[in-house]
Amino acid sequence: MATPAPLPMDPIAEAKRQWVAHGWADAADAMAAYSSVMRAHQLMYSRVDAVLKPLGLSYARLELLRLLSFTRDGALPMASASARLQVHPTSVTSVVDRLEKDGMVRREAHPTDGRATLVVLMPAGRELVEGATTVLNSEVFAQPGIPAGDLRTMTAILARFRRESGDFTDPVQYPDPL
Fold it and tell me: What domains can be seen in the chain, in order of their start residue?
């Protein structure tokens, strides 16, 4: 699919102008910020998807494989995966179903909790996620199209927004040992 030509103007700036013109100036900056984040998400997701699709991966599948690869044993309870990925358990089940069908993960009973199921990373899944991460890092993350300082500022602003929206709490800061 060909990349569409850039628009001759910024539609979000125009929407903000219209917001102000229609008497909603007090909400115009927030509308523009929200719209900008949503559009940036679309653009970023498209870049990531273009890299992952040829590898047979979606971002959701990559996230789960990467999460499992970060664990000591390559395994996590499905409920823990759901919590860490911040997605509904049904979504994790769906991703695990597809990855299991492709031989990338397997399910196994939790050794001490009869109610829990572990998702276990298989060698083919580890190989796929390592290769996909290498390609994603070189083709997207190493050249994000945003200067490094701006990335850090953007991440900090969005983290503050997420924290204040109840997405996470700051970890407890323990004192240094005496």
Answer: 12-19+26-141 (1.10.10.10)
